[in-house]
Amino acid sequence: MKVITVKNQLEGAKIGLDIVSEKIAAGAKTFGLATGSTPVEFYNQIINSDLDFTDKTSINLDEYVGLDGSDEQSYRYFMSQHLFNEKPFKANFLPNGKAADLDKEVKAYDKIIDAHPIDLQILGIGQNGHIGFNEPGTSFDVTTHVVDLTQSTIKANSRYFANEADVPKQAVSMGIASILKSKTLILMAWGHEKAEAVKGMIEGEVTESLPASVLQQHDDVIVIIDEAAASLLN
Prior knowledge:
By secondary structure, the chain is of the alpha/beta class. Helices cover 30% and strands 18% of the residues. It contains 7 helices and 10 strands. The protein has helices at residues 9-25, 40-47, 75-84, 102-115, 151-157, 176-180, 195-203, and strands spanning 2-6, 30-33, 57-60, 62-64, 91-93, 120-123, 145-148, 170-173, 184-189, 221-226. The strands form 2 sheets. Strands 1-10-9-6-2-3-5 form a 7-stranded parallel beta sheet, with helices on one face. Strand 2, helix 2 and strand 3 (57-60) form a beta-alpha-beta unit. The radius of gyration is 16 Å and the shape is globular.
């Protein structure tokens, strides 16, 4: 695990862009993408770069259950607004949160991941240590699955909704085992509110009670954090 501490999001996003450029030059074809506030500046850097993704594939980590891609709170809409509209890919895959049969959907998504091995996966980290929507207690062996969101995650995500009651209670998420199949992982974290989770991920024991700690077992992880998120590290 390589840890890079930066002054702010902008500096971190530029480092992330450099890594993406290097991976494309080395032949990377498939990128695992994340949503939320953490990667927004990173996506801005990609949009403003001269990188070409028209022969690349993206696979997103997750999607809310019950929202279709036209819903402004869906992750498909988020990705269109923050990246895809400006940087088109050959193919973009996200879970279908409106699928009539969610068990069938998660199995189909696993097949997509297997058919398009992820060269570089982008991750954020929740205040409770979740990656994707893999909440504390999630088995490290699980692949794509339907997640019951914890109250802390619902509360954290409520800032994007009119009120907390509107936040979906479930999501379809790549599982931890799915994430770990990626050849390289970049995890970004900004702000003091992420410091405790970052410390546990890097310096704590590997435990399902802090899902991101499993990244210690991956062969190629780059952690990009600002000084605030790094503030509790020894």
